[in-house]
Amino acid sequence: MTERVDALHVKLAEKLRVMLDLASVGQKSAIHHLFGILYADEIRGMKIYELEYIAVLGGSTTSMAKEISKGRNLAPYVQVKPAFRQYRIWP
Predict the structure, then answer these.
(1) For the chain, domain boundaries
(2) Of 20, 22, 33, 61, whose CB has the highest number of CB atoms within 10 Å?
(3) Which DSSP symbol is given to 50?
(4) Helix axes 28-38, 64-74, angle to 10 degrees
(5) What does the alpha-carbon distance between residue 90 and residue 76 come to, in Å, rounded to a whole number?
(6) With the C-alpha atoms ordered 81, 85, 88, 90, is the resulting torsion angle positive or negative?
(7) Do residues 66 and 33 lie in contact, with contact meaning Cβ atoms separated by under 8 Å?
(8) Helices 48-57 + 3-22 axis angle, to 10
(9) What is the CB neighbour count within 10 angstroms for residue 51?
(10) What is the pLDDT of residue 3?
(11) Beta-strand (E) ranges in 11-86?
């Protein structure tokens, strides 16, 4: 991975960490799905190992990369309610 890609991974991992910190206990898996939905454009071409890297840097486990991927795949079919748009903390 190049430095530019690593910087993107780190930035996304920071966003995931904030989202997980805001989440209640028992919502962690759903937050990973939501992350995948909200940031689908940014992670569209990423491989599973890159999503694992983001998950681990974000304070989660590598298995949560699959949940992020599920969210990414759902993104074209869902609309996020306004109450949850607060989680998209990307400029």
Answers:
(1) 3-82
(2) 33
(3) H
(4) 50
(5) 19
(6) positive
(7) no
(8) 50
(9) 24
(10) 54
(11) none
